[in-house]
Amino acid sequence: MSRTLLVLFLVLPSVVATAQSAGELKARYGDPDVERFLARPGITLMVRYADDRSACEMLIAPMRSIIPRNEAGTYMRPEVVTEIIDEVLPEANRGNLLRSLVTKSGCNDFETKEYENVTINRFRHECDPPNPEIEGEASVTWKNSSCAVPSGKLSDTARP
For position 115, which CATH number holds? Predict the structure, then answer.
């Protein structure tokens, strides 16, 4: 028994010490092609980059684990999502509005605004009228030749 405890005390610290830091991962694999930032308390901004490190795709969503779990749906205030979109993509950089459409299905709205330079999609769930938090997620996709989507879109991989 005492021999087992001795082995555990010697092996356990080496297991804990093997966690990788951001610097070690970057040194091993290079710059990340996707990063996640805390844009507001409880709201994340995930960004996918082109090879030249310019932003190609952004996803604004409530904070959730990066490992898929059965989590209850959480929502954001639309005015906060609008603030974040305006911060990362001022109207002057969008180009002219080409088309705007909203698809409604039951309590859900899916809004698309297509500009010359980008497309902005927003999903809202409006079944609980007094609740101001109805925005599920929003995405910004640049129309840039360096932003060819590799194997899948950021918004497809980010959902639990």
Answer: 3.30.160
